Amino acid sequence: MAIQRTLSIIKPDAVAKNVIGKIYSRFESNGLKVIASKMAWLSPQEAGEFYGVHKERPFFKDLVSFMISGPVMIQVLEGEDAITKNRDLMGATDPKKAEPGTIRADFAESIDANAVHGSDAEETARGEIAFFFPAMNVYAGR
Ligand code: IDP
Ligand code: MG
Q1: Spacing, Cα 112 to ligand 1 middle (Å)
Q2: Could you tell me the distance, in angstroms and rounded to a whole number, from the CA of residue 36 to the centre of ligand 1?
Q3: For residue 35, which of 138, 142, 141 has the smallest C-alpha distance?
Q4: For residue range 65-121, what is the model confidence (pLDDT) as tens digits?
Q5: Less Cβ crowding at N or C end of the chain, within 10 Å?
Q6: Which CA distances in Å does 78 have to 32, 34, 73, 95, 99?
Q7: Which ligand is closest in space to the CA of residue 108?
């Protein structure tokens, strides 16, 4: 295992539920460190570009509409095996199928409003981090 970085987004449903702190606490108590963060209200262009990989999928329009429905909290997490660890903490995409105790099982309502995003591989993590954070705003090791 190696120290990795991954991009996490707390989606508009979870921000509206006022559970940013509870979700951060899951990261911190599982060895993931927040090394960059910001709140943002994404434009349709930004959300569409971020989820560009899904643009041919039937749910793309709904996904973009949902992601721009309110502010989101965006963070870079760092730690041992951070990409898989964050995905494990998140739980399955559909909260009804997510393991008990995962973020999506505990805080999400539906496959659309599913509380969190997490990068799925090293390559996507690098691209997603660069999309939101210039390198000078990632504060690891300072
Ligand atoms: P992930 O967020 O678990 O990585 P992806 O397959 O990458 O899941 O899908 C991105 C997002 O698109 C999901 O988090 C979810 O919000 C939405 N999504 C995925 N599949 C569906 C679907 O079948 N119906 C509606 N929304 C979906
Ligand atoms: Mg994904």
Answers
A1: 7
A2: 24
A3: 138
A4: 999 999 999 999 999 999 999 999 999 999 999 999 999 999 999 999 999 999 999
A5: C
A6: 5, 7, 16, 24, 23
A7: 1
